[in-house]
Amino acid sequence: MKNKIILVCDDEEGILDVVEMMLDAEGFTVYTELESAHVLNRIKEYTPDLLIVDLWMPVMSGDEVIRKIRGSEEIKSLPIMVMSASRDGEGIAFDAGADRFISKPFDISAFVSKVDELIG
Fold it and tell me: Nearest to residue 52, comparing CAs of 1, 2, 116, 109?
């Protein structure tokens, strides 16, 4: 059991379900959030070891979420992985301060490998 906590934020429930099942099978404790505007509160509530966030979401985009985290003294060192179907997503994610990026649709083993690189 890895005993690491991962918070996943995506505005598509189907993606959240798949990611939660994948990471749960790897022994991680997974919390999900549909609304990007709630991520900062969830980070304080769950104190995750990793945040996985979609780039394009309503209300607050993933890069906005990352910039808020990187600007917060309390949580700025939280590892962040971005997942996106956007062609420009990787550059946007890294410019905002993400640690890893994975394209949607993603390969399960590549996804888990990137998570392990960050917190495994």
Answer: 116
Summarize pLDDT for 6-58 with one digit per residue, the tens: 999 999 999 999 999 999 999 999 999 999 999 999 999 999 999 999 999 99
Count of all residues that appear for the chain in the document = 120
pLDDT (tens digit per residue) in 71-108: 999 999 999 999 999 889 999 999 999 999 999 988 99
String of DSSP letters for 16-67: HHHHHHHHHHTT-EEEEES-GGGHHHHHHHH--SEEEEES--SSS-HHHHHH
Domains of the chain: 5-119 (3.40.50.2300)
Hey, what are 104's tokens? 């949607």
